[in-house]
Design goal:
alpha/beta, 5-stranded parallel sheet, 15 helices, about 60% helix, binds cobalamin
């Protein structure tokens, strides 16, 4: 007898072969997890730890050493190497994007295939934060290009990506009021009014919390303050199901959106520009 579940499983594996992007989305949406499927072992067939480390490792050996220090959760080493590169005149924004960030990305991808564990991610995050701090000190105060509120929406504690995005925005001359994570719509709206902000940078990594960004964008429509939405749980398709919002994938997308909004464009124009 052929059971429906067998057909579903067969379809999922066909999708993994033929439509890897769609398969990844299915995983990211948490459907496989909801079904209780153990992704750890199967994804090892797709990508190995060596491949992940190879793909993420910067070509410049001095940058690669910083990346290694972050991967190893070695804050002292990350700080020492970052300081040395700043001393040599390297651009601090470039260091965040291309030396420090690949470290945390590697550890998170290793986690996905069961090759790294949560304490390692948290140590790597510490090393990342220390390195980013140094870069920010070097950048110093730049003339403000606009005022932004950054947050992770209610119910979600994943703040590593939000911190990177805030650092890159600051490095590009934006004033960022970082509210932290697990932020309610009410608290966000209050902060927007107090700060007289131009734009909200909203992050979420879970499918269960992504509705919060939609609620926030809708409430802020009357204030004429749009929300730039990012984080692994969402995509352009989702964000474009509601108004007063612009989807971005990378920290540099956040910079592009902020420049355009603070430069006087409305969210509809910015959406079009970024397509
Ligand atoms: C680290 C981590 C944790 C840590 C978080 C620590 C912290 N301080 O952030 C802890 C242990 C707390 C945690 C807890 C949980 N987690 Co978790 N976690 C992860 C993990 C491994 C890495 C996330 C991460 O930091 N990625 C790296 C950063 C740099 O990437 P990022 O956040 O996407 O940000 C980048 C871009 O998206 C972009 N970006 C970010 N924001 C914005 C904004 C704008 C505007 C723009 C333009 C760009 C942008 O720029 C960033 C830099 O490139 C992921 C799996 C994974 N590999 O992603 C699971 C994951 C996110 N967690 C998951 C889950 C389910 C949980 C828990 C529910 C587990 C549990 N049962 O308890 C809890 C939830 C707790 C809560 N209420 O939030 C699921 C979510 C599934 C889903 N889609 O719903 C994931 C995907 C793991 C999985 N495959 O199951 N987790």
């Amino acid at each position: 007898m052929i059971r429906h579940i067998d057909i579903a499983v067969q379809k999922i594996f066909e999708m993994k072969e033929k439509e890897p992007a769609k398969f990844k989305k299915l995983i990211d949406e948490g459907i496989m997890i909801g079904l209780g499927v153990d992704l750890g072992d199967r994804s090892k067939e797709v990508t190995t730890a060596n491949q992940i480390e190879e793909q993420r490792r910067p070509k410049d050996p001095e940058y690669a050493a910083v990346t290694e220090a972050v991967i190893g959760g070695n804050s002292a080493e990350a700080v020492k190497l970052t300081a040395a590169l700043i001393g040599k005149g390297k651009d601090p924004t470039d260091l965040v994007l291309h030396a420090l960030m690949p470290g945390i990305q590697t550890v998170c991808e290793l986690y996905d295939i069961g090759e790294s564990y949560m304490p390692e991610i948290l140590l790597a995050n510490e090393a990342l934060i220390e390195g980013v701090k140094l870069c920010q000190e070097k950048i110093g105060d730049v003339h403000s290009q606009g005022k932004l509120i950054s947050l992770v929406i209610e119910g979600d504690l994943h703040d590593i990506g939000k911190n990177i995005v805030a650092a890159i925005l600051r490095a590009n001359g934006f004033e960022v009021v970082d509210l932290g994570s697990d932020i309610t719509v009410e608290a966000a709206v209050k902060a927007v009014k107090v700060a007289n902000a131009d734009l909200v940078i909203g992050t979420t990594l879970m499918s269960t919390t992504k509705g919060g960004l939609k609620a926030l964008a809708e409430v802020l429509e009357s204030e004429d303050v749009p929300v730039a939405c990012g984080g692994a749980a969402i995509d352009r398709h989702f964000v474009e199901t509601f108004g007063n919002s612009v989807y971005g994938r990378t920290p540099l997308d956040a910079v592009k959106i902020a420049k355009k909004i603070c430069g006087g464009k409305n969210w509809k124009e910015v959406r079009k520009d970024l397509h």
